[in-house]
């Protein structure tokens, strides 16, 4: 197979769990076109390559929350075991465990999706910083304008005789 998987298809399978962008073992197995149990067997055979910052198992609460959020994980249709999730580093390590042409193409697509997602997130962070700076400048300008308006009001409230003119 020489065609890459569309990045959008991969991006829709990236979740934020425990503050990390991860993919489910089930979704990875689908992309690699292997059974989830076979993917997990390959990982277990090479478990030293997958420390906790590369891969971890979801808790029941995390899994239930994910099922609720995505709506695609229906009860009874999926494994009775809590799924494993893989970070970007863990997914990169999968390419050394799954040695097929498909695995190479899938890993390239996944890495591109993670890079694109990181760019988008950093762009949003930059926009947020700029927006905060603008907000701070606006607040300062607003305070300065309030001072100017107060001084003008004080000057316009003074009676003409008080500024050196005699009323005849």
Rg over alpha carbons: 29 Å
Name the quaternary structure.
single chain
Physical arrangement of strands within the biggest beta sheet: 1-2-4-3
Number of helices in the DSSP assignment: 6
Could you state the order of secondary-structure elements as H and E?
HEEHHEHEHH
Number of domains: 1
> Average pLDDT across residues?
80
The CATH class, by name, is Alpha Beta
Number of strands: 4
Strand percent estimate: 5-15%
Q: Specify the structural class.
A: alpha+beta
> Which percent range fits the helix content?
55-70%
Instruction: Quote the CATH topology.
Output: Mlu1-box Binding Protein, DNA-binding Domain
Describe the structure.
- With 168 residues, the protein is of the alpha+beta class.
- The protein has one domain: Mlu1-box Binding Protein, DNA-binding Domain, CATH 3.10.260.
- It contains 6 helices and 4 strands.
- It has a 4-stranded antiparallel beta sheet.
- Strand 1 (14-17) and strand 2 form a beta hairpin.
- The longest helix is centred in the last third of the chain and has 57 residues, at 101-157.
- The radius of gyration is 29 Å and the shape is rod-shaped.
- The termini are far apart.
- The model has no long low-confidence stretch (mean pLDDT 80).
Compile the SSE list and pairings.
Blueprint (H helix, E strand, L loop, with lengths): L6 H5 L2 E4 L2 E5 H8 L3 H10 L9 E3 L2 H11 L13 E4 H10 L3 H57 L11
Antiparallel strand pairs: 1-2, 2-4, 3-4
């Amino acid at each position: 197979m020489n065609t890459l998987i569309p990045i959008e298809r991969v991006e829709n399978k990236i979740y934020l769990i425990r503050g990390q962008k991860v993919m489910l073992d089930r979704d990875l197995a689908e992309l690699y076109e292997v059974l989830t149990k076979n993917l997990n067997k390959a990982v277990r055979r090479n478990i030293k390559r997958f420390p906790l910052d590369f891969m971890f198992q979801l808790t029941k609460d995390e899994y239930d929350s994910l099922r609720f959020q995505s709506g695609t994980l229906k009860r009874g249709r999926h494994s009775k075991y809590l799924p494993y999730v893989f970070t970007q580093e863990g997914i990169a390590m999968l390419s050394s465990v799954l040695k097929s042409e498909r695995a190479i193409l899938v890993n390239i697509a996944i890495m591109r999706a993670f890079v694109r997602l990181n760019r988008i997130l950093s762009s949003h962070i930059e926009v947020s910083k700029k927006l905060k700076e603008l907000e701070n400048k606006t607040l300062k300008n607003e305070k300065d304008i309030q001072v100017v308006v107060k001084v003008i009001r004080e000057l316009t409230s003074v009676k003409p005789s008080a500024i050196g003119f005699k009323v005849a």
